[in-house]
Every structure is written in C-alpha cells, then in structure tokens.
Amino acid sequence: MAGDTVLFAVREHPGDDTVGAEQLRRIRKELEAGGFAVRWAGTGADARTVLRTEAGLAAVLVDWGLGSGGAPGGAAVLRQAGRRFQNLPVFLIAADESLEELPLWVSETVVGYVWPTEDTAAFIAGRISSAARTYREAVLPPFFKALRRFDDTHEYSWHTPAHSGGVAFLKSPVGRAFHDYFGERLFRSDLSISVEALGSLFEHTGPIGDAERNAARVFGADLTYFVLHGDSTCDRLVGHFSVTRDEIALVDRNCHKSVLHGLVVSGARPVYLIPTRNGYGLSGPLPPDEIQAGTVAARIAENPLTRGALSTEAQYAVFTNSTYDGLCYDAVQTARGLAASTPRVHFDEAWFAYARFHPLYVGRYGMSVGPDTFPGPDRPTVFATQSTHKLLAALSQSAMVHIRPTPRAPVEHERFNEAFMMHGTTSPLYPMIASLDVATAMMDGPQGHWLIDEAVAEAVRFRQSVVRIGRRIEAAGDRPAWFFGIWQPETVTDPASGERLPFDEAPAELLRTDPSCWELEPDAEWHGFPGLSRGYCMLDPLKVTVTCPGIDASGRMADWGIPARVLTSYLATRQVVVEKTDSYTTLVLFSMGITKGKWGTLLDALMDFKARYDEDAPLDRVLPELVAAYPGRYTGLTLRELCQEMHDQLREVSLVQLLDTAFQELPEPVVPPQLCYQRLIRGGTERVRLSAAAGRVAAAMVTVTPPGIPVLMPGEGIGTPDGPLLRYLTALETFDRRFPGFRSETHGVTLDPETGDYLIECLCRGEEVPRAALGDARELAVPAPAAAPTTAATAAPAERP
C-alpha cells in the first residue's frame, strides 16, 4: 500500500569508515529487505522538502544535529513532521546527546530514540518497521479499512451488481476495454448492500456508520450523513425535512436551484431574501438588515404566497455560504439574526467544506454555531450541506449533511432518516463512500490545516503576482499598461504596527494567517457592496476573481473594455478552464490540488493574451476555432476589434445594470412552486417567446450563467415588456444573436434553432390561478387537461439545454 517509505533525515558523512555511518547503512538495508523504500535527506532543507511533498511516509529518523546549524536543523524537521502529519512515527537519532539536554517538547513529538551503535541493525530496523506498519494500518479510516480487508479476502460474488467483480466485462471486447481502462480493483470494490461486513448506508451501521460518526467528529457536527448524489440532493433532503406543505421558508435569492427543488417537493411557500450586488455584477451576501426580524416579518407580510399559510412564522431559512464568488459570513452573527424568525437555519456550504480546517475561517461556517458560541434556548438547529468533492478530495457527487440540533427544533435520527432514504439509493457505489471516508481522514488533525494552508499560500502568491506584474510594467515604461486585476482589497492593515500596506507589499504570512486582511470593510470601494457591518463578511482567498477592464466595482463603465468571455475563450485554447465567467470577471478556484506550475501557466496565459491584444492580433490567430465555426461573422476581425465591439454592445444595452435591477426588483409571486410543477407535468404549461411572455406566469426556473443564479422562479409573474426581467432577458437574447460562440448558458430557456429566440415555460392562460384564490393554495385543484396545448412555440423543434 501507499505509505511504504521511511525518511532518513541524517547528516552526510564525509567518509564510509565511521561506525555510525556504517550502522545506518545496515539499518537502511534491513528496512529495504523488509519491503520499505528509504529516502535519504542529508540537510534540513532537503528533509523538510520531503516532508512537504511525500505523503506516503510511514516513519522518519531525524538526526538531532542535522545541518550546519547543529541542533536547530533537527528541531525544524521535527516540528514540520508534527505540523504535516498526525501520529507519524518519528525516531530521534541522538548519538552524542543526553536526553536531559533536549527540549521538553521533543519527547512529545518522537515515539522513540535511536543510538545506532548500541543495538543491532536488525533490531533497530525491526522497531522502525513495527511502528511503520502500525501507523499504516491506523491511518486508514473506518470504511476504507473495512473495504480493503473485504477486497483482500477474494470472495466470489453471488450478489449484485451483475458484473461480479468485473468478470462480466471480460467476456466482451468493449467490456474488456472498459475493465482494462479502470482496473480490476474498482470493480472488485463495487459491491451490493448485501455485504453485511461493510454496514448499511440507510441503517448507518457497521463501518459505514463508524465513518459517518468519524466525519461528525472531524467536521464538528453532532450528526453527519453521507450523501451520494451531490450537494444538490443534500439541499433537497434538508429542505424536504425542515419545512412541509404550506409552511413558510426564507430563501436567499442567491441560492442554488436544488434549494428550489426542495421547496417543490415539500410544497413550502418561499419568501425570498435579497442579497447585495456590486458593479461587476457579482452577488454579495445578505446584508445584516435583511436578516433582522423586522425586515423578515415585513417580507413575509407583503408576500402574496403567505396568505393562508399554516403559520405566519417561517419554519426554515436557507442561504449560501460561501457564495459562488467566495463571500463567507460571520456564521454566529448570521444565525443570531435569523434565529428570531425561524428555528432552523441551513448553511448551503457546497463550496466551503474546508472552512473548519484553517484559522482564516474561524467562526465562518455552519458547524461553528453551537452552545459555546450561541448559548441559550434561542439557538436554532443548524444544517450545513457540503459538496465534499468540489474542494476536498472525494469522488464526484460525494457530499455530506452535517447537523447541530437543538431542543428548539429537534432532529430525531429516525425521522430524519426517513427523508434521507427518500432521496438516497439502495445501490450505493462503495468507492464513493470510501472517498468520503478518506476525505474526512485527510482533514483530521494537523494534516488538514497543512493541506488548506498550502492552498491559501499559493492563492496569496498568485494574487500578489498579478498586482506586481502591473507595477513592473508601469516601472519599465516600454509597453502598454497592464489591464488585468484581482478582486481583492487594495491595501491591508498590519495589526502589529497599525501600518497600512499595499496588498502586493504585505507579508505573505500576514495575508495567509490574519482574517482581517480579507474582511469587507463597510462601504469600501474595492468590493462595492452596500449595507455591510464590520466583520460581517469576508472574502475567501481561495476563490480568485480576475477582473477585466471596462467596468469597476461601483458599476462605472469605461469607453473601452475587454469582456471576460473573450478572455476565457482564449484561455480555453491554452487548456486553462475557469470555473465561472461574468461580463467582466472570471473566477478560478485554488484547491488542495493547486501547484505553482498550475497557476504559473494561468499567469503566463494572461500575459500572452495581453501581448496579443496590444499588437491587435488577427482573430483567426487568437481564436481560430471561433472564426472557423462562424466565418461570416468573425473573418477579418482583430482581437481588439472584437473586444471593443462586444464592450460597446454591453454598454449600449446596460446588460450588467439590467441584471442588477432584475435581481433587486424581484418579480411578483403569483402561485407556489409546487403548483407550477404539477401544471408542468400535467400539460398545463406552454413555451412562449419573450416577445409574448409579458403578463404571463413562469412555470419553470430561469437561471442564467453567468451569474448562475435564478432570475425567475416558478410561480412568479414575468412582468411588463419594460420591466426589469424582460428587459434583461431580451438584452441577453440580442447579445447571443450578435455574438455567436459566446452564448450564455441559460437553464430553463429553450432556444429556437431557426430564429435564435428564447422560449420560456409559462402556465397556460386557462391554468393560471386567480390571485384571489391565493387565500388558501391548499384548496387549489390541479385539473388534468384532455390534451397538452399546442402553440407555435411548443411545435417548434427545440431541445432543452
């Protein structure tokens, strides 16, 4: 297995004739004969490099006098081993030192001492081997350990799945190719729930139950559940459990569409809370005033859907933390604000599973809300749903639900498990469960902090490098100015001295460890969000937003600009795929898998794009596939001409400002989302063009990427032709027609292939519910029409995206 390496951090010996050197070589040979690989590092720097980069270590021997500096060389290696690994067996070679002369902390770090010449090489190697094997076994978490043991028994399979450990694939040419590509071990570990030795995902017993309980400990929860269908299923599960039909749910408008799906399943009546937005079009946090009891009560009172609800009190609140662009809340302050309005608070932390494991994020994640930080009977039950695979090391679709229940809103396991089983599967993929177990173990103890700290350090280096390039170009004065930026504070304060420092000149250690460097100060120009209080919101350094010229955080547009869609199209030609693109910003994620080479490639691509823009390169050299796909549209254009033409279009139609208005002036709620879904399934809806959509009621969600947030929810009125929603969607439709190849990804919109028109799903005229009937939506019948209505729009051969 991995973890078969022993590190010798030992001084280089000038000759081969010393007794100590000869004995160390014998120890090395004994270990190698026992199946271990040995890495030899002769300096403290080399030893620390191995500790940083080699995760497969099973034991370490450290020479206390390592390096020219004497004792400090070995001390530094010991300290790094303790920071990097949990329970890694470390032996101290102390040939010339008395134990009484060593610092007291050394005895707490090492598992034993080695005097090479006082025991036989075989005995010393045996001690090291025994400790290494014990460590290798102990490092495996509960379920993964049990799965490996079951695999090692090589039992015949008499249960599902039918490929029987992969044997079925070997009987077909294409199956053999599939088997060879993924390897036998994957198929041997793809097992049935009939294997009792591995426990049950639904009963939470055996090694699976042990793994979930271990995850609860590591992530700071009282209860943790493994979910194998992604954070989307976690959101639906928690929503379905927390709120029932005709109860009120408070929903962050900056929510994932799966949150709405949970409301459709439960039949709840949503009341939306409105987040802030800035000039770039980035969605910010819910401002503090938005979650206060008075504001929430007013929103509930003015919402037509709350008439006739089971209670005027909300039973559930859900919001996104951190946001897609990396804005994370003071979790305790947010929970206190919402606690006056609801007994259940759900932190959708799809992109934030790592927060507990680094001091930058102290108090900014859901499971930090507990009896120690929020004592008393008012504390709400807190849920945190995490897409473990997104930014921790788990297989795709692997996710977790963490819960800290309170007497105010108890979560009995048996009741929650009913909802869990409704959204789960009786045929789980065991490698996915193992990946959740392993992802948990990777974050346990000092190694979790080490992994996230390394990602934060690389993100800081990249952020500072982008700013420094601009300063270097300005100082050289031999080329046009640098035009890329990073969305981040321009200056930070050193708390020790009180000195205000330019961001790129701040010590990396300060930026890596001090949360105040990343907090959104009230009314600061760089972030552009109004209504924030000090310490309420922080920018996550791991979510890096690259800014392009053309607009600023206040929304002021310049005469020239470079839309981010052009940049990301170029980056794709360089095999650099970003996470998200808005009109003038693009988001890249710094995860545990980041390296200097990886972000260096991105930086080089940004510099190359600038060089091509400065020289006004022909577009067929910069984006050859775009020109080949649409020759009539782009042949003869240069990169600079395309950028300016697109910028002029965005400025002329005010697309960014229209999007902001569409999010701030929400559509009127008309009917509950669940009723729209019932109409959709039973043929009570039709697709209509935007030009005919005014005054209609949406039957399906419309989500535009960018920004990836719903602009229209089922059951909401689409409004007038000059209203914010239709103006925005019409401007987006016009943009897509004018710039083929740069079309927005719009969920809930069908594209007419002949005209390029947007088609959206609306309730049929005869199926619309009179507003007077909203007094009690529970009494609304859902008639089943004899046949689905046919219109010109529905007859058009169009597929959903």
UniProtKB/TrEMBL annotation:
Keywords (A to Z) from UniProt: Decarboxylase, Lyase, Pyridoxal phosphate
A matching Pfam family: OKR_DC_1_N
GO molecular function, one term: arginine decarboxylase activity
Top-level EC class as recorded in UniProt: lyase
Domain Orn/Lys/Arg decarboxylases family 1 pyridoxal-P attachment site: 385-399
Stored PROSITE patterns: OKR_DC_1 (PS00703)
EC number: 4.1.1.19
Entry similarity comment: Belongs to the Orn/Lys/Arg decarboxylase class-I family.
PANTHER family: BIODEGRADATIVE ARGININE DECARBOXYLASE (PTHR45229:SF3), CONSTITUTIVE ORNITHINE DECARBOXYLASE (PTHR45229)
Name the UniProt record assigns to this protein: Arginine decarboxylase
Provenance organism: Streptomyces javensis
